[in-house]
Model the fold of this input.
Amino acid sequence: MKKQVQIKTLKIEGRDVSATGEQTILQVALENNIQVPRLCFVEGLSNIGACRLCMVEVKGVNRLLPACVTRVEEAMEVTVFSERLDGYRRLILEMMFSERNHICSVCVVNGHCELQSLAMRLGVTHITVPYLHPKVAVDASHERFTLDHNRCILCARCVRVCAEIEGAHTWDFKGRGIETRVVSDMNEAWGESETCTSCGKCVHVCPTGALFEKGKSVAEMSKRKQYLPYLTLMREEARQ
Amino acid sequence: MQPFAGKPTPPTDDRRWKLVDAAMRKHGHEPSALIESLHSVQEAFGYLDERGLRYVALSLRVPFSKVYGVSTFYHFFTLKPHGEHTCVVCTGTACYIKGAQKLLDAVTEQKGIQAGQTTEDNQLSLLTARCVGACGLAPAVVFDGEVAGKVTPDVIRKWISKWSEPVIPQSAEVAAVAR
Amino acid sequence: MNLDELHEIAEQQRESDAPFEHAVHVCVAASCLSSRSDQVKNALEVEVKSRGLEHKCKVKGVGCMGLCAAGPLVETRSAKRTMYQSVTPEDAPAIVSSLGAQPVESLMLSLDMPFFAGQRKIVLENSGEIDPDRIEDYIAVGGYEPLITALTAMSPHQVIEEVKKSGLRGRGGAGYPTGLKWSTVQKASSDDSKYVICNADEGDPGAFMDRSVLESDPHRVLEGMAIAAYAVGASKGYIYVRAEYPLAVKRLKDAIRQAEKLGLLGSDICDTTFSLRIEIRLGAGAFVCGEETALIASIEGNRGQPRPRPPYPAQYGLWGKPTLINNVETYANIAPIIRNGGDWFAGIGTEKSKGTKVFALAGRVRNTGLIEVPMGITLREIVFSLGGGIPEDRKFKAVQTGGPSGGCVPDRYLDMAVDYESLAQVGSIMGSGGMIVMDESSCMVDVAKFFMDFCRTESCGKCVPCRVGTVHMHELLSKISEGAGSWADLELLERLCDMVKGSSLCGLGQSAPNPVASTLKYFRHEYEQHIREQVCDAGVCTISQPDEEMSGVEL
Done:
């Protein structure tokens, strides 16, 4: 029997939009070209609601909701941009910049880095909190790629794509809180990983220059992750 | 390097691996038994060494990075062996108010190590716990697994001095008096 | 196992207890054990035997009697009851001599003192009465009757109705209506399994209520879980216990085995079609695993990182199935509610907060330990009557409730009736029950810094606001406490509090700013004094060399 698809209508930023019952606020917003700020979201990967940039205000709800995991409801009224929300987003970006050693001045503002682009868009040109200056390493042991922890924002895109799409689960996180770091296998050099297939998906989903292809300069490096939803779909089909 | 297929064999002949096997078997070798299995390794060997982690990973079919991630997330697990003696100072609210910091300072003064560290000669590890549940007896310290309440810097110093003494075989009576 | 057989066991136990003229109860819960109460018990047994009194006098290990500061506690019961404090093995002869004769004055504690007389015990009613290692003791005081009644004479719906009528609210801290939660899980359709989980990851530093219940009356918790599982339709249960509570784990494991042996747990319980298997799962040192989705992640074998809610565990919980999670104390209230009826429970407490609450009283108060009091009692009664007031008669400053997620309540609210709503109104929370009393020797900036340090090290790291925000807030609090803070720092601190509270993923991050907000609300002058004058009135903070450029810089 064909499953009934429920259609819902709601307002986002004052505009009337329609959605199917299972869609999230973020999905519907993006369909209607409302660019909700986000960093941990990638179409084709599971949603974890970690970066907290996509938080939105919903009329009648007394707390903010993450657009990437919140399903739409009939007659919802969603506000994406407000003074409070934008203020939070700027402060969250400041948190990210302070957490590691991002030297953005060497990177051309050409849209290749999602963190840089978002900062430009939201008007974060400097930070008002002290830099934490953690001492973190650069792992250049892999033949084709490099991981620079100084530019990592712990969005877990690399972890998710390797576990969910490639299936190798080479990446994961070690430690917790501010001590969290991305690790490959048993905290080994990437180049010595027994599980990595060198597919490069992690490099392409990484929103910053933390993961990059060797031999490419900062200006040249552009990432391609548009094929991910296709891969996700193919995997689901194959599993059935 | 062990192959990924087939049944993994324990890293060594040490009979304690049988305890770990029993724990994993009890939970049907399910991936969700990871934390229970890591507990059994730490209980048997005192800490989680890399070979143990790999063995559990292969036995339960859990990715290496995930096992590493889980074992480093939880503060109860340690990837390095503790010293011969452990001194766990409770830093819960009640103990903090009653002066837990002074207890930590006393050890640092005497042995030169901070919380989380072990002395050079591997003799003593100073650790903290976020509450051992003995709040009525604050400040509490666990000396080699034994909970002691209403501890003062003097009491800590006495324990450490006692541990620092060279171990001479004693008759049971002498040992009882010394205690 | 049916009611008749249960009554038989109870009768047998009572008959075997009857011939004893005297009973000596020795507390063998963790606090007293750490003061060697096991040696006290041995010494008493040896003394009784040496005088040939083993048929007249029963020496029994029992659970927590509450006044932990005065342990090891021993209670003798002859014609009347006498409580003894700080008992050592050497006191055994004197205590045995006192049975049926004059009490040992030097060790005596008055049972009339408010600490004991002012309590109303429901959750802790068996604690200190029964031997936690023996199921027969539990049955002899009516244990497991409510379970059999529920299974044979009530429908799951009727059970839920009683719980709803009782007005019981989650005792883990959030105070969510328990009956409503059960009914949500019960309604959740599931073609296969549902789960019940007991959250015994008591991580609040300063809280040891759950620990005491588990060590002193484990069957009470098992029975509560079984009744809950019947009500919601679950057949598998997990108790997630902190690894730091090995005695609780042991007592639970023994209790489960005993219950299974008697057919009170396992398959086809009491010859009905209801089955429940309960397993213990160990925590491993992560406060965040007290959060229900993180707890679920941990049982699944993952890092204890919370997941966004909705979906709530009642719909999508352990392994995606409908799951009921309740706190230890919540489950411990269930059997009495089924026995006496929901209306009976609702007759205790206030309008919106029914029943009793177990509080762990600690800090600068004379009688530190566990108390169970009806909701609506005032803070003054708790601190100055049951608590015995502040040692050295120092001045009361504040009471911290709710652990690192809570706030400080100052003296102007001492006559406030303690319940969920009133505590929330003054900027704190009920929390799990930890109550830390503070006097003038505490610096509130230091207290806020302590709790922020805790949140920072316990943060799971998943979301940016909590992971990085708590680090910056702790840095700012340290700076202010050292006398190196500026007005700009205070402003930034408040901005960060707002952002972290408003956008964090889970309760840990959302409530991490609470102690700061609360101390700023009632003790702002302390922050200002640290900044303006580089002085810590309480004498707690180590003030660094005053920096002329930093002091008094106004924006």
